[in-house]
Amino acid sequence: MTQDIVSRNNVIIKGKGDKTIVFAHGFGCDQNMWRFVTPAFEDDYKIVLFDYVGCGKSDISAYNVERYSNLEGYAQDVLDVCKALEIEDAIFVGHSVSAMIGALAAIEQPHIFSSMIFIGPSARYINDVDYLGGFSQEDLEGLLDVMDSNYIGWANFLAPVVMKNDDRPELTKELEESFCSTDPVITRKFAEVTFFSDNREDISNLQLPCLVLQCSDDAIAPDEVGIYVHQQIKGSTYQKMEATGHCPHMSHPQETIELIQEFLNQQPH
Amino acid sequence: MQKSVREIYLVFKGAKDAHVPVLLNVEVKQTATMTEIVCGGMEIANRNRFEKELLEAKKIAEEALNENAELIKAKNALVAHQKILESQYRKVNSLKEQQQEVFKLIAHDLQERKSIFSSNYILTKGKALPQAVVEQLHRIISFNSNMSDMLLTLLHFKELDNMELNYTEISLSEVINDAIVDSQLQNAERLVITYPEKDLSFFADNRLLMRLFKELLKNSHKERNPDAPILKIDISAIETVKNSFLELSDQYHYDKFIKITYTDNSTGFRTKFSEIIEKCVQFNKINIGLAYCKQIVEKHSGIITADSTKCKGVRYTIILPMKQPSH
Prior knowledge:
The complex is a heterodimer of chains A (269) and B (327).
Chain A lengths: L1 H7 L3 E4 L4 E5 L21 E4 L21 H14 L5 E6 L1 H12 L4 E7 L17 H13 L1 H13 L5 H13 L2 H12 L4 H4 L6 E7 L6 H10 L4 E8 L3 H4 L1 H14 L3
Parallel strand pairs in A: 2-3, 2-4, 4-5, 5-6, 6-7
Antiparallel strand pairs in A: 1-3
Helix pairs in contact in A: 1-2, 2-3, 4-5, 4-7, 5-6
Chain B lengths: L6 E7 L5 E12 L4 E9 H73 L2 H7 L5 H29 L7 E5 H11 L8 E4 L6 E5 H17 L8 E13 L10 E11 L12 E2 L6 E2 L2 H11 L3 E7 L3 E9 L6
């Protein structure tokens, strides 16, 4: 079982601390995206990296359309990895959609995590009455239509929007390549599950210390969304970053590291 | 032809020099006065085609026959299994009926015996008895009272087998409150019960849900930690989305569930739902509370799990569908 999950989710363990940090990548990415951040924690923490099934170097044959038709299926991946590695009281760091995936996992098995760090979280991407998610229903349906008709074109369009930081084209290129290197059918389904998710009710059930890192000028998760997530999670800490775009762990790793360390230093462990 | 030729091969030449090869089958009929030769035939090309079609049809028929033989074999095996199942079903039913009769008998018999011993008996007739005997009688009465409770639960436990659930929309806070009142714990000293902050409504059998909480409360009360000055019970609930295939792996269908978490600071010993007989120093105490809880939850297509820390308490997690399952 343990070996099955480790190989299914391409689990990589690094670091030499007692306390564990689980890093969970966002939509269209893989664990490699954490490479600028994780070295700063390797001396003090055990680092667990993994790829969701259907992403990165995971075992694509384990992909089950029904299971991954809901973020709960991805949350089960997190729980499976933690169970296989007998992880308890860990710190969860989730980027983008992984913030909500981590929240679902923590609500399901509260003892697994002691604190949560959300980078660019969104409880819902589509605008609603009294809620600004950043996108209209038509926007996202249009995005999925483009994915269906012109997959490469979609990646070319979305990567610069997500990454921003035009002065560093190599990052945009990396993200674009990451979008394109994954299975188009799985990525299309993951996009649908991600962009049409609504976890506004769920996050109010999260009862763990939580840091919300909100980027500046984030086209995927605007300020209002980050503030909403912070307000819904009792006792959470909100930090507005200097970093722009939606991937501060890639574009502004130093600021990301410092804010995470500052939060972890305030925790009782 | 000397009656030995069976086939004649002929080539007819047409008006436009077309050659048509024909194979004739020959039948010789001998009458008293003459020999009659009857020939029937068809164009060679057609004959070949028909022969091929015949061979193919023969092959298909043979395969169908084989398949049919296998189907018949499988059918016979199924019928044999059905007979075995029928026989086992009868045995199970018979055992179930016998078991129910035994339960009724035990319940009735023990209820009768219990009525003999009562506080009134000691009050009215036991005045002259020595103190030691009175104390023993009190112990017997206490045991009888526990036994009575257990029998009632046992009967409810058995009733559940054939019970049709009466699904109605219920309020979790109300059902917990009813269970507390019914357990006469609303004014209990050294007991603090915390309700869910947000009241959730869901569909379930109200009566059974109340019994579920009664059993959990009873269990917490029975197993209270003598070192803890106050028995604390905390009940919280959230609405969640879960895979409705709770037992089968690799089967997924997401539905809304209510997840109820019940924690207490009891001794944390009893968490096994299958355990009915509890070993004690003096005698075996029968406690079916948790087994009954499990049965109630499973009857609602839900699951209940428990984990405990010795001397710190028990946490029960109950997951129930928000709506009546369609099956």
